[in-house]
């Protein structure tokens, strides 16, 4: 089977300000982030001939291209629904440029996720629980936090994980956010006492365990490995890519703790020819803090059941064993559905992060509940 290993690279990144009240349209933010990514790559607008987006994004490729003055696209695609899409979109873009369907592809996300429709609102969106939601909505499981809370409680029951372990994750990412001026929670540290005194949303999840709904946009440019060295920035190569969608995601079938991460990790590391010990920096999709503990286990950074003590010992902080979400992640930078984690790992590998990991050469980033993952190298 043909591999994508080192066939494509990410060569430009762009972001708007992350905020709770943008006062702007999602289209205008998409235009800004895309222009910044194109400029960062040293490209011109007419060099772009491909675009991929989230199915949930309100900005279609045709509108974005028109606003940028791009006459037509040779390639366009999309993937959904939300959190699991980010790495998958990179895979789509990499396949397009490595097989000659496009030369330079924009991957973008733009959302007023705080001032507009909020994903944590609990609104029933599928009329009487149609489709997969037929197994959850009739029983009151309306938002991801509820099912994540159930999985967190089960991990506590099985392995002795505690609320303080979840708090250690939240504190670590807030500590990283305090190094990052782009983070919404920049300059706002928390203590374990703050965490334990905070409001419980879905037992055992507290407010500090939940992703920070935000307004903003980001974008990056994917090109072929042959073209990448000719551009402005140091390329970040896609060393390995994998996706997985086990039936247990969403709580249907299989084990309570099946995840895409446990399914795709062997392929991800096998294709790259590396092990978890070779990874210098990680960007995990952290819609809720307990998933960090299970992902550390599923990807092999620590043994099964030992994720809680691993984070409590500070081993995911900058300067420690395996720095995770060095921008603050979804918990403390902003919730842009996995895109900002990819951008932060790119910054780390380019040596440009405010929370720079020394000599970072390999980074792992995932999206959703392990629905997709990449290993990136400089």
Name the features:
single chain, 378 residues, alpha/beta, Peroxisomal Thiolase, Chain A, domain 1, nine-stranded mixed beta sheet, two-stranded antiparallel sheet, 11 helices, globular
Concise description?
The chain is about 30% helix and about 15% strand. It is an alpha/beta fold.
Task: Describe, in plain words, how this protein is organized in 3D.
By secondary structure, the protein is an alpha/beta fold. The protein has one domain (8-116, 212-377): Thiolase/Chalcone synthase (Peroxisomal Thiolase, Chain A, domain 1, 3-Layer(aba) Sandwich), CATH 3.40.47.10. It contains 11 helices and 11 strands. The strands form 2 sheets. It has a 9-stranded mixed beta sheet with strand order 3-2-4-7-1-8-11-10-9. Strands 5-6 form a two-stranded antiparallel sheet. Strand 10 and strand 11 form a beta hairpin. Helix 1 (26-41) packs across helix 2. The longest helix has 16 residues, at 26-41. The chain is globular.
CATH A-level architecture: 3-Layer(aba) Sandwich
Biggest β-sheet, characterized?
Answer: 9 strands, mixed
Q: What Rg, in angstroms, do the CA atoms define?
A: 19 Å
Which outline best applies?
Answer: globular
Number of individual domains: 1
Stretches where pLDDT is under 50 for at least 5 consecutive residues are 248-254
Average of per-residue pLDDT values:
92
Number of helices: 11
DSSP summary, beta strand count: 11
Order the strands across the largest sheet as they lie in space: 3-2-4-7-1-8-11-10-9
> Beta-sheet strand percentage?
15-25%
CATH fold annotation: Peroxisomal Thiolase, Chain A, domain 1
